[in-house]
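Appendix C reproduces, verbatim, an entry submitted by the partner laboratory led by Prof. M.T., so that reviewers can inspect both the input and the predicted structure.
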Amino acid sequence: MELLSQINLWHWLILGGALLILELLGAAGYLLWLGMAALCVSAVQAAYPQPWQSQWLLFALLALLFTTLWWSWQRRALRKKDPAAEINQRNQELIGQSATLLEAVVNGHSRIKIGDTSWPVRCETSLPAGSQVTILRIDGIHLLVAPMAQG
């Protein structure tokens, strides 16, 4: 208890620096905001000396505030960058896209190419190679397609 009552701005500076150094060793952002909170507490201590209870309370509040702000900013940035970031299965993005059959539909099976990947497809309609189709849904590794509406 005596150690806690004698904490000063130098202790906060050392703690902040140590946390930031540990962050450099690969903590993936977990210690960055704690280190910044400790450095802020040392700056507050330099300007307005506080009792140790207030220092720890300020440290906890700043760490929570910095972490929450960073987390919410990061989520917004990810949503702007990739609107489908919330989707667990990326192949669901294919639904509604159109593609060209690489082969004729034989016994309900064919293939299409999207990007650099060739996908197996199933289609209820017999179609020649080169036909335009729309992806309706995903069934395992197969894309279920239908002929594209004309007009």
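The mean pLDDT is 86. Additional entries are available on request from the coordinating office.
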